[in-house]
Design goal:
By secondary structure, the chain is α+β, with helices and mostly antiparallel strands.
Length: 505
């Protein structure tokens, strides 16, 4: 699914940040330099490294066009560079002179935000290079910053653990304790979660911190309805502070890097772990996805930057595989249903199912009549665009090909057939799986059973995550485990495989 294709080892000290444009990769380090590489062959540009800062460079970021690079440093400055020749365009000094820990361009390139160790945040005019607005948080250093995809607000994270939301006039909209021991990074997905009521857009925000957690938030903001930030979920996997996180350009993956030296790649729809990368030998301090290709860069205190490439076909299979869905359909969330639709070649129906809040239980109860009457999956023939009506005022664009009544009936028949297959599967699973084949943690059929020191068998991945997050107690007895060693239960695995061969098609 993912392979290491290149390692950059030009920095002489810890790598603090890495960032992509459409053609370049930038890295910065405690060694006071910024380095630029071509994405075509990962060779360093002739005018690299960029040198100006007199102390460690903490963060670097490209403008959306990629023509300008910003970097910020302990020396209290944020510097703008011409990426074509490496020339310095501007040196912007933090008003307080405090070390600058993070910088970020707005999506329209008009502003640049810089956050400092004394809690001050500055919005700079990216054209005139002059200070536009200034604000500050009550406690802690500002170490993280991210603009919403539409540019209407931005979020900062502090070493005290607060997420603070600012509008484009630097007014504080919201502040919330997100991580007990301090935030280290935050990042928005560029893709909206869904279209909400009254035209609201909801964006997914990830934050990570010294508490070893990666948290997912759902954010919305309009001048009419105001701002709302809701905690959605926590992603497990790391056993030490998480220092960096980033979404892929399509919003389908989230990656995080940790003090435990690992990089974890998550599927944002199912929140399952797709891959764990363990090639770095020291803390992973930075991670970034390219804006248009499936390339990932990870930086570390081992002074290297690793470049990873994802196999698109394998990745799509991993995303759509029912193995990443909950074993029992009635427990599926709306996102699980969306994943299942994509796996069945019914991606065009994801929007209408989401609008009608179809989860696993609702899916199993759908009938020919409800598909036609409630979901309106009867496509009307149009001259150019195929449309689905999901209500009196809701119209969902389906495809740019002409749809016929015959095709409509075929689509509805396909949906019904797939749902009937699910019902058969549910009946089969709910009635016949022996109790000893079910993991006590996930309540799902085990694929890789292991025996823990409490004498019970568990799904390996589930038990490993339990040990990391539950202070090494037994899921069955709640007593402290004498040992965290997990022994493969090969006898049980063979029994499960034999049972599957007998009972599945």
């Amino acid at each position: 699914m993912v392979k290491l294709i290149h390692t950059l080892a030009d920095h002489s000290d810890d790598v603090n940040c890495c960032a992509f444009s459409f053609s370049l990769l930038a890295t910065c380090s405690l060694d006071k330099t910024i380095r630029l590489y071509s994405l075509s062959d990962f060779t360093e540009l002739p005018h690299s490294p960029l040198k100006f800062h007199t102390y460690a460079v903490h963060c670097c970021c490209f403008s959306p066009s990629g023509h300008i690079l910003a970097s910020c440093s302990t020396d209290g400055t944020t510097v703008l560079w011409n990426t074509e020749n490496g020339q310095t365009l501007a040196v912007m000094e933090q008003p307080s002179g405090s070390p600058v820990r993070v910088c970020q361009f707005s999506p329209d390139s008009t502003c640049l935000a810089s956050g400092a160790a004394d809690g001050t945040v500055v919005l700079w005019n990216a054209q005139s290079y002059k200070l536009y607005r200034c604000g500050s948080v009550k406690d802690g250093s500002l170490v993280a910053c991210a603009f919403s995809p539409d540019g209407s607000f931005f979020v900062t994270g502090s070493s005290c653990g607060d997420l603070t939301v600012w509008d484009d006039k630097m007014r504080c909209l919201h502040s919330e304790k997100a991580h007990d021991l301090g935030i280290t990074c935050c990042n928005f997905s560029s893709q909206p979660v869904s279209g909400g009521e009254q035209g609201l857009q909801f964006f997914r925000l990830a934050s990570c911190g010294q508490d070893c957690q990666v948290k997912i938030w759902v954010v919305s903001f309009t001048h009419i309805f105001g701002f709302e930030l809701k905690y959605k979920s926590m992603l497990s996997g790391h056993c030490a502070p998480v220092l960096a996180c980033a979404f892929s350009h399509d919003g389908q993956m989230l990656v995080s890097g940790s003090v435990d030296k690992s990089v974890i790649v998550y599927d944002t729809n199912t929140e399952n772990i797709l891959h764990t990368l363990t090639q770095h030998t020291r803390y992973v301090t930075a991670c970034a996805f390219a804006p248009h290709t499936l390339l990932l860069a990870t930086g570390s205190m081992d002074k290297t930057v690793n470049i990873w490439q994802f196999d698109l076909e394998t990745l799509c299979q991993a995303r759509s595989s029912e193995g990443h869905l909950k074993q029992f359909t009635e427990d599926w969330s709306e996102e699980d249903v969306s994943t299942w639709l994509c796996a069945q070649g019914l991606k065009d129906l994801v929007g209408i199912f989401k609008m009608n809040n179809i989860d696993g239980k609702e899916l199993l109860n759908l009938t020919k009549e409800s598909l036609a009457d409630d979901l309106k999956i009867v496509l009307t023939c149009w001259t150019h665009w195929g449309l689905i009506c999901s209500g009196p005022s809701d119209v969902l664009l389906l495809s740019s090909t002409q749809m016929s009544t015959t095709e409509s009936l075929g689509l509805r028949s396909k949906v019904l057939r797939k749902i009937e297959e699910l019902r058969t599967r549910v009946k089969f699973l709910s009635s016949e799986i022996p109790d000893e084949f079910i993991c006590p943690i996930t309540r799902e059929l085990m694929k890789d059973p292991v025996i823990a020191s409490d004498g019970y068998s568990y799904e390996k991945e589930a038990m490993e995550n339990w040990i990391r997050t539950k202070k090494r107690t037994s899921p069955m007895t709640n007593l402290v485990l004498p040992s965290v060693v997990l022994t493969p239960n090969r006898t049980l695995k063979m029994a499960i495989n034999r049972w599957l061969e007998t009972h599945q098609k």
